[in-house]
Amino acid sequence: MTLLAVENLRVSFASEGGPVTAVHDVSFSVNAGEVLGIVGESGSGKTLSLLSVLGLVDKRVTTVTGRAVFRGRSLLDLPDREMRKIRGRDIALISQDPMTALTPVHTVGAQIVEQIRAHEPVSRAAARARAVELLRDVRIPAPEKALDRYPHELSGGMRQRAVIAMALSCNPALVVADEPTTALDTTVQAQVLDLLPLRQSHGSSVVLITHDMGVVAEMADRVAVMYAGRVVETGPVADVFNDPWHPYTGGLLASIPPLTGARQGRLYSIPGMPPAPGTKLPGCAYVARCPAAMAICHTPPPEQMDGAHRSLCFLDAGQRVAARQKVGAPA
Ligand SMILES: Nc1ncnc2c1ncn2[C@@H]1O[C@H](COP(=O)(O)OP(=O)(O)O)[C@@H](O)[C@H]1O
Ligand SMILES: [Mg+2]
Questions:
Q1: To 10 degrees, the CA torsion angle through 130, 132, 134, 140?
Q2: Longest C-alpha distance within the chain, in Å?
C-alpha cells in the first residue's frame, strides 16, 4: 500500500536573474512499512525535495509544484495549520541539523513530554512514563536519569538517539530521517542506524536521506538516486545494486569503501562537480562526468523501465556493463 506518493515535484527559487529550478520533476513513493533510501551527493536536492513535501520551505521565495499525496490528502494544497498537525503526528522529521530538533533550554524529558502532549490528551505522568519507554527503546542507558538531562549534557550519539525517540513518540506513519548519522563518528553511526528497525515495533515507514550508498545497502528496501535535482534511477535495492543502470549510480557504488578484505587499487571517486542549479542543460545532467557519455546524451534521456526498476539514461544493457567496468563498479 502506498503511504506517500510524490509526483513531478518541481521546486524553484526566485532570484535576480529569474526563477532557478533546484528540483526537477521528482517522483517517488513510499509504501507502508518500508524504508526508502534517497541517495545522492551533497546539493542533489534530497533535503529540498522532502522539506517541500512537508511544507517547510519559505513560501515567499520558493515555488513548489507537482503532487504529494499522503493517505489520500494532497499535502501541497493543505493550509499551514493542517500541515503542522500532520507533521509530528503523522510524519516526523529527523532533521539534518541536529540542533534544530532539541532546544538547549529544556531537558530532554520536558521536550519529549511536551511533544507527546501536543498531539495526545494524556497526563504529564503518563507522557513521562512513555518517554522513559521511548528512551529505553533507543537504548539510552538509565532512561529515567537521561530524561532530566539537558541536550548539551548528552554525547552526540545519545542526543541523536533522543531525537529519534522524540520522532517516534507519536507513532508516526512516516519518519523522514535526513542524514541522521552524518555528524556522528562511524561506530556511533552504526549504532544509531541499528535503531531505525524500531520502525517495525512502531509501525512506521522511513524515508532515509543519505549521501552514503553503504547506508542504503544496509538499511533500505528501495532506493531513489538523485542527481542535480532529478531522480536518475530508482528500484528495489537488490536490483539497483546488482545491476545499476545509470552511470551515476555505478559511480556511487564504486565509491563505497569495502568493509573487509584488501582494497584492490584506489577507490573510485566521481570526477568533477555537479552542475549548479539553473545551469542550462539540454540533455542528461551527468553528461560532463559520465564515463560512457555519447553525443546523444546532450538530448533529453529516455526513461527505461523493467518492473519497479527505472532509470533516465540512453545506455543499453551492454553499454551499462562497459561503463561499470570502467569505474570498477560491480559489473
Ligand atoms: N533557500 C535556498 N535558496 C536557493 N537555493 C537553495 C536553497 N536551498 C537549497 N538550495 C539549493 O538547492 C540545491 C539542493 O539542495 P539540498 O536539497 O540541500 O541538497 P542535498 O540535501 O541533496 O544536499 C542546492 O544546489 C542548493 O544550493
Ligand atoms: Mg541535505
A1: 180
A2: 67
- pLDDT tens digits for 2-35? 999 999 999 999 999 899 999 999 999 999 989 9
- Could you give the 3-state DSSP secondary structure of residue 242? helix
pLDDT at residue 246 is higher than 90 = yes
Whose CA is closest to 55, among 37, 78, 38?
78
Q: Which residue segments constitute the domains of the chain, with CATH numbers given? A: 2-242 (3.40.50.300)
The amino acid present at 172, given as its one-letter code, is: P
**Ligand 1: which residues within 6 Å by Cβ?**
13, 22, 40, 42-48, 277
Ligand 2 center–CA 121 separation, angstroms: 34
Give the Cα separation of 124 and 129 in Å (integer). 9
3-state secondary structure 282-318: CCCCCCCCCCCCCHHHHCCCCEEEECCEEEECCCCHH
Q: What amino acid is encoded at 224 in this protein?
A: A
Determine the distance separating the centroid of ligand 1 and the alpha carbon of 242, expressed in angstroms. 30
Closest ligand to the CA of 44: 1
Which three cell numbers mark 220? 533500505
- Nearest by Cα to 311 from 216, 215, 243, 255: 243
Note whether 311 and 246 are within 8 A (CB): yes
What is the band of 231 on the pLDDT scale with cuts at 50, 70, 90? very high
Nearest one of 42, 45, 39 to 10, comparing CA atoms: 45
Other CB atoms within 10 Å distance of the CB of residue 314: 19
Cα distance between residue 192 and residue 100, in whole Å: 18
Q: Report the separation in Å between the CA atom of 178 and the middle of ligand 2, taken as the mean of its atom positions.
A: 7
